[in-house]
Amino acid sequence: LIVIQVAIIKLSNLQTCHNNDIFSSQTKEDLNHNTDVAFKIQKAGVPGRFNYTDLESINPRGFPIWPREFPCYKPDLGWYLTKVVRSPASEGFLFVKEMKTGSSTVTGITLRIAQRIAQRTSQRFKMCKSRFDHSMAGDLKYYKRDKKRSFLWTVIREPNRRATSQFFHFEVSREKVEPSDKNFREYLSHPVFTDYYLRSLATGGYNPEKGNHLSAVKRIMKDYDFIGITERMDESLVVLAMILDLELTDILYLSAKGNGGFDDGRFEETCVYIVPAYISPTMETFFRENDIWKNRTKGDHLLYKVVHRSLDMTIDALGREKVMEKLTIFKELRQLVESECKDKVIYPCDAGGRRRRKAAGCLWNDSGCGNKCLDNATSAF
């Protein structure tokens, strides 16, 4: 206890770091009041509308505490190969990686947890079996998973912001498309944006033309053991740790990529500068008032709203003050590792956009980088 208290005092004296990526921090007021963050987002002018009648019919639930030991099993041979991580699994730590939700960073967290649990429980292997790459839950046959031997989770982001990030990442940054409103609207007309989350997360698959979005949202909420929110990332991770009885150091991370940096260098073996995303006033109006777009994404917006409610309900069930205390400590740990490690980690692409042949200390591509530094920096804790 003395060691922990000393560590916390030392951490509290650190100068606050400013995190400009998409993982916005939570203040004390966010946790002291049982308010729905999604309502605050909408009132602040973020595009997207919710059908509150639909919300009432879903009956959001808090995510329960995992009643068993962490599902740590022997990993597949060549667990890091794309063909393996995109293959079906019925057991293990299963993360469904959604596009442009901060998921490369969360992939690193998934692998850090899987690695540390294997080491801490003295397994004969170095990594618990897991899944963590882009694949639809239906393709991975998660409807067949053993729910007693697997933990299924994901992280989602406000749908319009996610779509914007996707446009700027793949079209503007990689393909050098002009970020005009016309090009943006044309890009959004692609079928992939029609209830993207429902199609990707539904364990049994989902067809927007034939399926019922209310039923799909209900099923997703029933099938998943936890769903986090990108805009509430640190808060979501602390709740995940409490649900799974993890240590706070298990969920530490350094951001994999973000606006104004370079990607992982895998696209045409070239480091691509990620142009900072923005939404013009015209596109704000489009997201807010275009009935066709709202109808195409109504299921995703509903799911996003429900998950916000469920996260708040989970925090209440765990104890709001208890969660706040852990979140405070976690944010101090984050400040510590950012200060100690951000200039020491070797990513696939350097600050000048040059591709390195090998990124030292990354668990997978540009995910889970700097784990050794994270461990060393927090050894006292």
Features:
mainly alpha, 4 strands, disordered N terminus
Secondary-structure blueprint:
Layout: H1 2-12, H2 28-32, H3 37-43, H4 52-58, H5 82-85, E1 92-96, H6 103-120, E2 130-131, E3 150-156, H7 159-174, H8 181-188, H9 196-201, H10 213-223, E4 226-229, H11 233-244, H12 281-289, H13 291-296, H14 298-318, H15 320-341, H16 371-377
Parallel strand pairs: 1-2, 1-3, 3-4
Structural description of this entry:
The structure is a single chain. The chain is mainly alpha-helical and 381 residues long. It is built from 16 helices and 4 strands. The longest helix has 22 residues. The N terminus is likely disordered.
Order of helices and strands: HHHHHEHEEHHHHEHHHHHH
Task: Provide the helix percentage.
Answer: 40-55%
Helix count, DSSP H or I runs of 4 or more residues: 16
Radius of gyration: 20 Å
Q: How is the main sheet built?
A: 4 strands, parallel
Share of β-strand residues: under 5%
Shape: globular
The CA-CA distance between the termini, in Å, is 10 Å
Point out poorly predicted stretches. 1-50
Number-wise, the strands total 4
Strand order of the largest sheet: 2-1-3-4
Summarize it.
The chain has helices at residues 2-12, 28-32, 37-43, 52-58, 82-85, 103-120, 159-174, 181-188, 196-201, 213-223, 233-244, 281-289, 291-296, 298-318, 320-341, 371-377, and strands at residues 92-96, 130-131, 150-156, 226-229.
